[in-house]
């Protein structure tokens, strides 16, 4: 929710702006004021996200009010809507430190889009100022992929996104399971717009237009949800996914993509654009059979070097172990996530990823470890350290098979 205070000398203008703003469910008008001194008091008390100042043709108060708020309240973003915008008046406004000066928008849609655009841009700027960390220009695109359904892709993608967001990373989560995507269920959000709606737009180079199709989770994660029904899946093409990802990577630290079990064009576009592919597998012969085949395909596509294996529900029952997986798939193992069905299912039913709802559970600790490794930027992921016993058992098994 973005809240605003409106200031115009003309009450009728305030009324009109209010009506227009309220057509957008994410905007809330806290107050409408026609006097500059009262406005300053209200801003002090209510700390609105946005002060929307209407400046009439002969109005000079608006600019001096803008100046005072810009100086005193850096977290209240000031937008000046100027009637008869002349170069001289524009210069006065910018000299007063107010860089969001626009002609009065023609309709509600334009006004609401403007408010969102300024809010997002200013928020990014303030967050960048707040951040003590070295800016990481190269954002990471992580696709969570598996060669068999139901083995934990969405669980891992949503929990990882949540933990990265908790660690103050800017995270975008994309549900690319176009037929049966359920990221919105795991995150308990009700998307107004989805990827298929976005695909109808010409979003080229406009992060604001893409953002208007995202659902903002209370954790700060921006989610692009899968189409609401399967018949819209085909509106999403590989080419569009590719241009979407190249646009997004300038704005997010992490773009996490939950994929489907296929090598369709959108999936391939995501895998190709990824910096790492988190390849989810398990300690089961049927999963490993498919995983091996998928790995061969990834190899032929030149993507295998990006693969980091995640063994989910890694309960070793003395038949197949992590060492076997490493050997069969010939890819580094990034993590082993234990099996905790009750925690995993309770989190889905609650709509709150378990890293948040059950942070001490072993399964949550395992996801946090992955997030830490990613943040450390340690690209030489730890190989599984096999115990001497595991190594002996492994050698024995494969030697006897080689004969
Ligand atoms: N480590 C785990 N321990 C216990 N249960 C788990 C674990 N990981 C996932 N699950 C459970 O397995 C089921 C499938 O998980 P999930 O939906 O994440 O898989 P998926 O790969 O995304 O499936 P799909 O291919 O259908 O999209 C869910 O009920 C989830 O709670
Ligand atoms: Mg899934």
Globally, the shape reads: elongated
**Average pLDDT figure:** 88
Helical segment tally?
17
Total tally of structural domains: 2
Overall strand count:
13
Largest sheet descriptor: 8 strands, mixed
The helix/strand class is alpha/beta
- CATH class of the largest domain, named Alpha Beta
Order of helices and strands: EHEHEHEHEHEHEHHHEEHEHEHEHEHHHH
User: What gap, in angstroms, lies between the N and C termini?
Assistant: 67 Å
Notes on the protein architecture:
An eight-stranded mixed β-sheet has the order 8-9-7-10-6-11-12-13, with helices on both faces. A five-stranded parallel β-sheet has the order 2-1-3-4-5, sandwiched between helices. Helix 4 (87-95) links the parallel strand 4 (77-82) and strand 5. It has 17 helices and 13 strands. By secondary structure, the protein is an alpha/beta fold. The longest helix has 23 residues, at 108-130. The protein has two domains: 2-130, 3-Layer(aba) Sandwich (Rossmann fold); 140-402, P-loop containing nucleotide triphosphate hydrolases (Rossmann fold), CATH 3.40.50.300. Adenosine-5'-triphosphate binds at residues 146, 149-155, 177, 261, 312-313, 337, 339-341, 344-345, 348, 363. Residues 153-154, 177, 182, 258 line the site of magnesium ion.
């Amino acid at each position: 929710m973005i809240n605003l205070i409106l200031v115009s000398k003309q009450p009728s203008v305030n009324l009109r702006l209010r009506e227009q703003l309220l057509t957008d469910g994410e905007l809330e008008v806290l107050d409408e004021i026609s006097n500059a001194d009262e406005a300053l008091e209200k801003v002090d008390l209510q700390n609105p996200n946005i002060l929307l100042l209407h400046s009439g043709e002969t109005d000079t108060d608006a600019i001096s009010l803008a100046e005072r708020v810009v100086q005193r309240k850096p977290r209240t973003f000031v937008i000046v809507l100027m009637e008869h915008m002349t170069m001289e008046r524009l210069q006065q406004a910018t000299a007063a430190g107010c860089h969001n000066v626009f002609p009065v928008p023609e309709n509600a849609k334009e006004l609401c889009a403007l408010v969102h655009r300024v809010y997002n841009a200013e928020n990014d700027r303030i967050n960048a100022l707040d951040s003590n960390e070295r800016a990481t220009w190269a954002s990471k695109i992580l696709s969570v992929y598996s060669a068999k359904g139901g083995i934990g892709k969405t669980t891992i993608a949503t929990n990882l996104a949540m933990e990265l967001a908790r660690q103050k990373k800017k995270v975008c989560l994309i549900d690319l399971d176009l037929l049966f995507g359920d990221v919105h269920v795991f995150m308990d959000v009700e998307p107004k717009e989805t990827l298929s709606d976005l695909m109808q737009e010409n979003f080229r180079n406009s992060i604001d237009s893409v953002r208007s199709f995202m659902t903002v989770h209370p954790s700060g994660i921006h989610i692009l949800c899968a189409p609401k029904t399967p018949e819209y899946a085909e509106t999403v093409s590989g080419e569009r996914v590719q241009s979407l990802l190249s646009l997004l990577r300038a704005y997010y630290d992490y773009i996490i993509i939950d994929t489907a079990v296929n090598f369709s064009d959108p999936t391939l576009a995501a895998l190709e654009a990824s910096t790492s592919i988190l390849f989810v597998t398990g300690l089961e012969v049927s999963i490993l059979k498919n995983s091996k085949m998928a790995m061969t395909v990834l190899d032929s596509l030149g993507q295998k070097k990006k693969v980091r294996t995640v063994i989910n529900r890694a309960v070793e029952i003395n038949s197949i172990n992590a060492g076997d997986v490493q050997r069969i798939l010939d890819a580094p193992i990034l993590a082993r996530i234990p099996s905790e069905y009750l925690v995993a299912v309770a989190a889905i039913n609650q709509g709150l990823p378990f890293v948040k709802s059950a942070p001490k559970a072993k399964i949550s600790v395992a996801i946090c470890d992955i997030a830490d490794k990613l943040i450390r930027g340690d690209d030489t992921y730890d190989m599984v350290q096999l115990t001497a016993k595991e190594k002996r058992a492994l050698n024995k098994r494969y030697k006897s098979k080689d004969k």
